[in-house]
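Sequence in, structure out. Go.
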Amino acid sequence: MGTDTEKLIMGIDPGTNFTGYAIIRTTGRNCRPTLVVSGVINMKQMESPYLKLQRIFQRVLQVIDSYHPDELAIEAPFQGKNVQSMLKLGRAQGMAMAAALQRDIPIYEYAPRKIKMSITGTGEASKEQIASLLNKFMTLPERISTLDETDAIAIAYCHHIQGNLPTSGGAKCKGWSDFVKQNPDKVI
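Output:
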């Protein structure tokens, strides 16, 4: 990414009752991202699991068509004990991915632990800790009231960080403290 290249990254936190979405704008390698839009697709009152899936697909496609993100970052389903819950979550994720594929948007998946590590430096952070730290990395409006929305912002921010990590042509980081030393502009 060049020094003045603008990129819109869409983050999706898939869920069967609430799906969070966010789009952040980044400009250049050492930029402080800005939030373009965020929200939650609320399907709590819907009874049909198939209509919930349709709603996820339609709403994600609407946001894509309104803002034209360059890339989509989505939380990968985590391995849990309840197979039915994992199946439902995978279906919700699939609908968001299908919407992105409909518009030829590249998709990047991140495990929940990777997202937490990117934001907080630990894979054990709570959703509340992530929400609190995001305010240090970017200016967020006070109206963000759900953790699903905050998680979507965190997923987009994680993708931004991962895209700006040193590659084989740059310096290698040997851990979190080394990353902080090499990237003081990314850690506040």
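Check: The radius of gyration is 16 Å. The chain has one domain: 6-186.
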